[in-house]
């Protein structure tokens, strides 16, 4: 079995199929979910129960959807592998399902899904799905969990229309404060915007940048860069509806250093920002670090009362992702690792 890079169009298409299934079940639309299987598909449930054929699967999903209507679902950590022998994609993912009861308590369950996806009817369909209940410890040891969070902390620029509880915002900001800083000076401050009025200040200041970003995207000959520019343009255009904006700020450091005070301050604020992004991913939130504030910084400072001597290092958009982020795309470590000397 050989691995095909995640960013191929086919991998994106088959992962979208898996997400479409989860979306259909989240909405209680069992008919649409069943239509994503091939006529002769096989569904193996967590107890080893095997259902064969579209009719049997559709009947089963109808019951599942009925039981799931009061639940919410979140699918994460999708990975795609191409099997040359069978001519199918293998898509592995994890799903968390939770129900909030009338007393406010929550019941959660965790599942691992493994789908064989094949071309059918000019598109993609699931030929076999195996669902395994994993329980709370679905991601292994603490070390494995931390590394998995790092490997799946991709930039999220599109968010679901769903508020982020204040306690989760506090958690990610607290995680940011655990970052290292020169002489442990902890120079950071975080301006959190959640109300339409305060978010609107940033949105109006940065909004005019969207047209320029779309122009850059249209001119780019590189597909990945074009996609990135267009996604950033969409983020800027919809900035007023982003659930949470966090301005990562800091007080200038005055102690002497060969690197200079600005570099020393940014070394702390960028580390804090990375901590925040990782904490967001660990909590199943999505986030993206930007420097979009530089395109309207004067208006943002005036509208939010940020003192002139405070540095704004980054603007982080935060919310529930409207699609599950995959793994990060990076250069192979062997291309950047140097032992003993350059």
Overall description:
This protein has ten helices and ten strands. By secondary structure, it is of the alpha+beta class. Helix 5 crosses helix 9, helix 6 runs antiparallel to helix 10 and helix 7 runs antiparallel to helix 8. The longest helix is centred in the last third of the chain and has 22 residues. It is elongated. The N terminus is likely disordered.
CATH C-level of the largest domain: Alpha Beta
Poorly predicted regions are 1-7, 135-139
Number of separate helices: 10
Our Rg estimate from Cα atoms comes to 23 Å
Kindly report the average pLDDT value: 84
CATH architecture of the largest domain, by name, is 3-Layer(aba) Sandwich
What's the story with the biggest beta sheet? 6 strands, mixed
How far do the termini sit from each other?
Answer: 35 Å
Q: Any idea how many domains? A: 2
Order of helices and strands: HHEEHEEEEHHEHHHEHEHE
- CATH homology group of the largest domain: NADH Oxidase
- The CATH topology annotation of the largest domain reads as NADH Oxidase
Number of strands: 10
Question: Which band does the percent of strand residues land in?
Answer: 25-35%
**From the helix content, strand content and strand pairing, which structural class follows?**
alpha+beta
Approximate helicity band: 25-40%
Q: Strand order across the biggest sheet?
A: 2-1-6-5-4-3
What characteristic shape results from the CA principal axes?
A: elongated
């Amino acid at each position: 079995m050989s691995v095909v890079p995640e960013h191929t169009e086919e991998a994106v298409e088959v992962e979208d199929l898996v997400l479409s299934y989860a979306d259909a079940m989240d909405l209680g639309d069992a008919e649409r979910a069943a239509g994503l299987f091939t006529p002769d598909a096989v569904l193996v449930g967590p107890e080893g129960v095997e259902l064969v054929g579209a009719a049997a699967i559709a009947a089963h999903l109808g019951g599942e959807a009925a039981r799931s209507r009061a639940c919410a679902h979140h699918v994460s950590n999708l990975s795609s592998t191409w099997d040359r022998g069978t001519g199918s994609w293998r898509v592995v993912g994890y799903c968390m399902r939770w129900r909030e009861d009338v007393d406010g308590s929550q019941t959660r369950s965790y599942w691992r899904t493994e789908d064989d996806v094949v071309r059918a009817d000019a598109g993609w369909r699931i030929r076999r799905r195996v669902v395994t209940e994993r329980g709370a410890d679905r991601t292994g040891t603490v070390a494995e969990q931390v590394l998995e969070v790092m490997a799946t902390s991709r930039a999220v620029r599109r968010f679901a229309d769903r508020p982020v509880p204040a306690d989760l915002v506090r958690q990610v900001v607290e995680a940011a404060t655990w970052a290292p800083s020169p002489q442990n000076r902890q120079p950071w401050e975080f301006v959190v915007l959640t109300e339409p009025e305060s978010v609107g200040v940033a949105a109006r200041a940065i909004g005019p940048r969207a047209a320029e970003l779309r122009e850059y995207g249209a001119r780019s000959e590189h597909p990945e860069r074009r996609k990135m520019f267009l996604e950033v343009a969409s983020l800027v255009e919809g900035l007023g509806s982003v659930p949470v904006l966090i301005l990562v700020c800091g007080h200038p450091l005055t102690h002497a250093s060969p690197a200079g005070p600005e570099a020393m301050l940014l070394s702390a604020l960028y580390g804090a920002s990375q901590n925040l992004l990782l904490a967001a991913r660990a909590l199943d939130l999505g986030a993206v670090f930007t420097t979009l504030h530089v395109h309207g910084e004067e208006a943002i400072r005036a509208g939010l009362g940020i003192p002139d001597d405070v540095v704004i290092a980054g603007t982080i958009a935060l919310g529930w992702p409207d699609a599950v982020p995959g793994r990060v795309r990076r250069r192979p470590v062997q291309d950047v690792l140097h032992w003993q000397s350059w």
